[in-house]
Specification:
The protein is α/β, with parallel strands linked by helices. The chain has one domain: Rossmann fold (3-Layer(aba) Sandwich), CATH 3.40.50.2300. The chain has 5 helices and 5 strands. The chain has a 5-stranded parallel β-sheet, sandwiched between helices. α4 links the parallel β4 and β5. α2 runs parallel beside α3. The longest helix has 12 residues.
Length: 134
């Protein structure tokens, strides 16, 4: 049985909380992803403007602009960029608002690892067997 090739994708991770940002990055370590960090929504938009990004993970509440405010700005820079928003103040109304703004998914924070991996795998269009965790 052959081992599937590593697929390198570039993911933007925007969160003003350094500990959360690095915790999520640690969760994604070893999955063939290059993680680019942003502390604000504005910084996230600048990174997408300058760099090819395959997906964006956005905290809902950040300085500069919120996750939901960043979505149309990111889509202006890269049409169709899959955006996953997470929030500590998650509600069904917020999820509907975030999805209506064009996000791929809206997750509750603290983010459940399997939910994040499932959403990111879907956003990137990757098969599940490449990301099996023990």
């Amino acid at each position: 049985m052959s081992i599937p090739p590593r697929i390198l994708r570039r993911v933007l991770l925007a969160d003003d909380d350094r500990e959360v940002r690095f915790g999520v990055a640690d969760l994604l370590d070893g999955l063939g992803l290059e993680i680019l960090h942003a502390e604000t929504g504005t910084e996230a938009v600048e990174l997408v403007r300058r760099t090819s990004i395959d997906a964006a993970l956005l905290d809902m509440h950040m300085p500069g602009c919120t996750g939901i405010e960043a979505i149309p700005l990111l889509h202006h820079e890269r049409a169709g960029l899959p955006c996953i928003v997470y929030s500590g103040r998650w509600s069904l109304d917020l999820e509907q608002e975030v999805l209506a703004a064009g996000a791929y998914a809206c997750l509750k924070k603290p983010v459940e690892p399997r939910a994040l991996l499932r959403a990111l795998r879907g956003a990137l269009g990757l098969p599940g067997e490449l990301w099996q965790r023990n």
